[in-house]
Each structure stands twice: as structure tokens, then as C-alpha cells.
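Data deposition worksheet. Section B asks for the primary sequence of the deposited chain exactly as it was used as input, without tags or linkers unless they were present during the calculation. Section C holds the resulting structure in C-alpha cell form. Section D is free text for depositor observations; keep each observation to a single sentence. Incomplete worksheets are returned to the depositor.
Section A, Depositor: J.P.
Section B:
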Amino acid sequence: MPLTPEKLQQRTKRFAPNVFEFCDELPSKPSCWVVRKQLLRSASSVAANYRAACRAASKKAFVAKLAIVEEEADESLFWLEMLEEMDVGNPSKVQKLKSEADQLVAITVASKKTSRQKGKQ
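Section C:
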């Protein structure tokens, strides 16, 4: 079953609260503060910018917003990797969130490529 824009919007929207819940479980120590804040920001930005992409007025604006989604999903992946290296957080939850962030990056890259190819036809 293909991933429709509506399903991807739901998926990106689910990613944010999953990250929020994970971050709420992180230890409250100074070394986690910056990582937690950055991860919360980037994860919520994935959903917000995909929503904006879906409302884009042009193909060019759509692709530009997708580029932001890609950057923010990749940044989320980076912060999750940092937590993994710090040995902080539930390892299985870190892996699950890393997998989802990685998939969102891949989907976004493919969507950008498809949109650009359609624009050249």
C-alpha cells in the first residue's frame, strides 16, 4: 500500500509525540538538557514543516519545505545517536526512534526526487 501524503502527514505528526514521551523519560541532568531541547525542537519541526509542505502554493515551495523536513529528521537522528553514545535513555526506544527518523529521511529524499522529476516533465 503506497504512502499517501495524508498517511505521511499522520506519520510525521506521530513522530513528534513519540519523541516527546521518550524525552520525558530521560534523566534530568545537565548533560541531557541541550540534547533533549534540540531533539524536541527538531522532531516537532518534522511534522510542522511536512504539514506546511502539503499546503505549499507551488512545486518549488513544496520541494523547499521537504528539504527542511529532511534536515530536521536527520537532525533528530543525530541527537538520538548522541543519546545512544552517551548511553542515556531506553536503548530499544532509541533504536525505534532512530529507525523512524531514518525512514522519514529516506521517504523525504525520495519525495523530493520524485517531485523534481515530475517538474521537469
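Section D:
Residues 5-120 form a domain with the de novo design (two linked rop proteins) fold (CATH 1.20.1440.60).
The helical segments are 5-24, 30-54, 59-85, 91-120.
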